Amino acid sequence: MSTSADPRFAGLPTRPGKIIAVHLSYASRADQRGRRPAAPSYFFKPSSSVAPSGAAIVRPVGTELLAFEGEIALVIGTPARRVGLDEAWTHVEWVTASNDFGLYDLRANDKGSNVRSKGGDGYTPIGAQLINAREVDPTDLRLRTWVNGSLVQDDNTSRLIFPLAQLVADLSQHFTLETGDVILAGTPAGSSVVAPGDLVEVEVDAPTGQSSGRLQTSVAAAQGGGYDEALGSLPAVDDDQRIAAWGSAEAAGLADDSGQSTSAHASVLTPDLRAKLEQCPVATMSQLLRGRGLNNVSIDGPRPLPGSGKIIGTAKTLRFVPNREDLFTSHGGGYNAQKRVFDAVGEGEVIVIEARGETGAGTLGDVLAIRARANGAAGIITDGAVRDYDAVAAVGIPVYGARPHPAVLGRRHVPWDHDLTISCGGATVQPGDIIVADTDGAIVIPPTIVEEIVDAALAKEREDAWVAERIAEGERLDGLFPMNKEWRERYETEQANTEQANTEQANTEQANTEQRDTKQANNEKPNTEQPGSPS
Predict the structure, then answer these.
(1) Does the model's pTM come out above 0.85?
(2) Is 383 annotated as a binding residue?
(3) 300 marked as part of a ligand binding site
(4) Does residue 162 form part of some domain?
(5) Does 35 appear as a known binding residue?
(6) 127 labelled as ligand-binding?
(7) Is residue 249 part of a domain?
(8) Which helix (H) or strand (E) holds 504?
(9) Helix residue ranges, H only, 292-354
(10) What is the pLDDT of residues 325-337, one digit of tens each?
């Protein structure tokens, strides 16, 4: 039915001027992602990304997270500008199947716009056949996706958060939808990663029998090529991106038998490492980090609320932006980013909040603190204010904040996004960074060097304790603090002697224990001799 000579647009009446895709529209997908938007949001895809049924999509060299998203495509027949909900569907001429492919390896630097992650050649297959929109009910269309013959997505437009007609009417408020433009209506739960050799099929059909047929796309590996670092960002993935692309930690192979995440940064803080960190003052670790060239790891400003003890955990980040009334309307209510973070925080994680040092409104209150404590969070750090100050302090979870303030966050903040790199108290914090806080303040430790820093800090603490004993005995500071060569040699000799004595004592205790165990075993050995038997 295509009138275009270009084979890429064989599944469409013409080459589209615009392709507009919806970020999140199906309830099943929203539930899977843990957030339900109050209004639809969109991104553009280039028409050069369109491909027909039967074409191959190429996964670039050095990437791993090519994900499919089966979707319904709406093709505009007559231009629509500021049309109402009741007439919006009359401007849709055709309905068909589409696949909104995305490469999560490229998502980080274009998150939201998806320019590189979803704009590649062949990333928008559409077809195979067009369905006359006049012959179907837009509230009762079925969407199904298969991978290698297995059904992986099966949903209906009756379960959309935003009806198809609403998407048309909403977009027409902002610009003219022209003949041939395409709207991709979002994907349901079940989107996941595919690899070279896989075959993905998408079909849209109606109860009355109309069908798009199966839109088929095979996945192929790139032969050579790649990305030039001198021109732009390179592909990069972490476990959070893997979980988002695959759909769950389990699907990504990042969960244990109980379903808990086993991502790299979640497993850095072993019980032994936590025990070591308990013994390490923040001041000592800050000094050691500075000695390694890391001068900007202190979270300046937040102080512990009354009763708040030491915090040790991995960072889970939340970002507030300055309040703007229209943005608070779209992002501040409902199940917003703030509520999602406090619901999702895991055991041993620290919620770190970027509030820009703005203390004119609270960034959390007692209910959120209770939720974090119930989830086993290790603490909360905000460079903004704390509302319900006394009640939060009484919850029993360590909280560090800039000061108390009675106002709700909407006075100064919009809860914007989470699980991304933020700034808190002048320090850059990434998800999975190690956060340690005590009465001296809070610091950020890169996970890759935390073991090294902890061991060095414990050694430094032993050295400082020895120096303090000598000072208490009346020794002069000069030459001892810091130690000169002579004092250093004396310290190291005493340490070596102490270690040797401890080792000998431990060996003696172990030998004594083994002797007692052997003697006890012999005493408890049963007598197997029968009465009257010869000796």
Answers:
(1) no
(2) no
(3) no
(4) yes
(5) no
(6) no
(7) no
(8) helix 485-523
(9) 325-331, 337-344
(10) 999 988 888 888 8
